[in-house]
Amino acid sequence: MTVFAFYLFAVLMLGSAVLVITARNPVHSVLWLILAFFNAAGLMVLVGAEFLAMLLVVVYVGAVAVLFLFVVMMLNIDFAEMRAGFMKNAPLGVAIAIILLAELVLGIGAYKAGNLSLGTADGNAAPLVGESNIESIGELLYSDYLFLFETAGIILLVALIGAIVLTHREQRAPRGHQDISKQVSRRPQDATELKQPGIGQGVEL
Amino acid sequence: MISETLMGWGMMESWAQVLGSIIGILLIALPLMLAVAMIIYVDRKVWAAINLRRGPNVVGPFGLLQSFADGLKVFLQETIIPSASNKGIFILAPIITFTVALLAWAVIPFDAEWVLSDINVGLLYILAISSLSVYGVTMAGWASNSKYPFFSAMRAAAQMISYEVSIGFILVCVVLYAGTFNLSDIVMAQEGHGFGIVNGYWFNLLLFPMWVVFFISSLAETQRVPFDLTEAESELVAGYQTEYSSMAFALFWLGEYANILLMCALNTLLFFGGWLPPLNVDWIPWFDIPGIVWFLLKTFFFFFMFSWVMATVPRYRYDQLMRLGWKVFLPMSLLAVVAISGWLMFTRYGGAA
């Protein structure tokens, strides 16, 4: 059963990952990417990391991919124009691909040579602190890895502030400003007035 | 629970597991669909009563069969797929909406031990699944290749993401108090929470405001009035459903109401003690009433509140909706997380020193 589930998730994930880069329509690409995320979460559940799996779905599928989808849908992408630039940029792309491949081969070669010790990747060797993996992650994150955790938090905070600073523009000409409390506290009797005009007299405003 | 019974009948373990899950899924999904049909009827009746109308009263006694008649009508309609639409996604969107709405019910405990899968990340699972429901709407809006559905999809996506943030923080508050993500354990943690008498987190000065925020956010999350800007008929025709007909349209409806019921159930489970009776006292014999009755009654009560709100509150403006989500609820729930963790450190974990 588990083996079947593993191959199901793995095949679906690899298949959709390939389709992410081959799909012609960028919206389809994003949707395939979401499927790939989802199957990755399935794989995580299979190895017993259900907390990470749920976080993957909440963060990547629930927030990041929605924003991708947003942007891709809003952009009016001209496919013909994109294809026209393909041959021009092809040498650069091939060069980057070759460099990445070389780095991968080198990295794996160095690891296989045994000069690096990356620690044990064996999940069973990790210290079991809590009974559920939420507790274990919490215990580790807030004790052994507290400094790294806080650093990651600071980096994210800086990125957040940076994004706001980059996109924030001072308003040159002050436009009509909304005062929400003023809007909310407005009552019908302040805004309307009832008049009882006599016949044939009209209303003086 | 079901698979153990099957194994007791001499069935192999793996087969019993599979068959037990399938029976369990059917036991949840089929009554849920029936409940959705009836709840649409209730919705219309409550709405009508508040408007001093009669509501559906023709089909069957008291109009009880109205939803089934509507279902039959929709089923017999022609399925129209616009020629300019993106066909695959256009068909997939309602299916996703419907499936996702059903998926979340897997971890909802209806009574002690009455839960399809009792996983220890239950609440996170709910959060993950509910964040998926954006996709049905967004895909529908985009694939329709039409302006109104597209606007509606944009609105829906922005709205759901905004309110999920504050819902997430409110869930954190509840989890901090309960000390677990498992929904059954969260319910059990509420037993006698208020002075040993009241079952439920609502009886708590720190959590009651969070319940109010959660209730309003769940209205926004399910796109109910007053936050139904995705279907604002005066601006967007029928929103993302504009191009849909027949069963695809029906799937959207079923999914939407299943989501509303889910939010009502969550209100019950997280703040109002789930299947526990309201008060934790023995001299009233309500512990003899099966827990599922309490659960359904409480869920129904919240659905009644949803209908009540729908009949009485006018629709929000979109910028007001965004302001409420980001500038009011988010700071409030963040503050509550800080306050509650501080309070718990002080009282429960002895952090006073």
Descriptive keywords:
heterodimer, A: about 200 residues, mainly alpha, B: about 350 residues
Structure description:
The complex is a heterodimer of chains A (205) and B (353). Chain A has 205 residues and is mostly helical. Chain A is built from nine helices and no strands. In chain A, helix 1 runs antiparallel to helix 2 and helix 2 packs antiparallel against helix 3 (50-74). The longest helix of chain A is centred in the middle third of the chain and has 28 residues, at 86-113. The termini of chain A are far apart. Chain B has 353 residues and is an all-alpha fold. Chain B has one domain. In chain B, helix 1 (2-8) runs antiparallel to helix 2 (13-50) and helix 6 (147-178) crosses helix 7. Chain B is globular. The mean pLDDT of chain B is 84. Classes of the chains: A mainly alpha (205), B mainly alpha (353).
- Extended strand count of chain B: 0
Largest sheet descriptor of chain B: none
- Provide mean pLDDT of chain B, rounded: 84
Give unreliable regions of chain B as ranges.
none
Question: Helix proportion of residues of chain B, in percent?
Answer: 55-70%
The helix/strand class of chain A is mainly alpha
Radius of gyration of chain B: 21 Å
